[in-house]
């Protein structure tokens, strides 16, 4: 990487760090691109060169938080590995993201920002849904391999992820409950897998 490229990357990282701090403290509506620029120590024009809108900047922050939680995870389906083992890896990555304090704080900001703006809400939902597409692809691959019996892979993927959110996301977002400890995280994950496989595992549902 050349010196100008390194400088550009440092400015981008400074903008993201400043935006995270401002969004967490002041919320989405109050935070301005001017304020983000001042906190990052760059010009407003530099901020817009990297991110054309506040919505784009916020979406990138959420995307990075998601990406950091699954960076080391292979989400591709493996026909020679137990389904439970693969599901556990996928759900542990999801749980890691939902236990991240930054992610929870920004999720609260996102929800507050979308209450009065259906258009913004739909845009953010669409962006986050795209980040979860890897889970749906895994379910679809297992279905096509004859190991899962679900008729709608997207529905099944949403179903199992919702089991985690019911314990490890929504109570923390809406009621201010603490994040789950390691033992409770493992219990929620294993229970979700049990329910999912009881419903969709082809071997379990095959007549004896």
TrEMBL record:
Species annotation: Pseudomonas veronii
DNA-binding region: 32-51
PANTHER family for this protein: HTH-TYPE TRANSCRIPTIONAL REGULATOR RUTR (PTHR30055), TRANSCRIPTIONAL REGULATOR TETR FAMILY (PTHR30055:SF224)
Cited SUPFAM superfamilies: Homeodomain-like, Tetracyclin repressor-like, C-terminal domain
Stored InterPro entries: DNA-bd_HTH_TetR-type_CS (IPR023772), Homeodomain-like_sf (IPR009057), HTH-type_TetR-like_transc_reg (IPR050109), HTH_TetR (IPR001647), Tet_transcr_reg_TetR-rel_C_sf (IPR036271), TetR_C_Proteobacteria (IPR039536)
Source superkingdom: Bacteria
Designated name of the protein: TetR/AcrR family transcriptional regulator
Record-annotated HTH tetR-type domain positions: 9-69
Keyword line: DNA-binding
Pfam families in the record: TetR_C_7, TetR_N
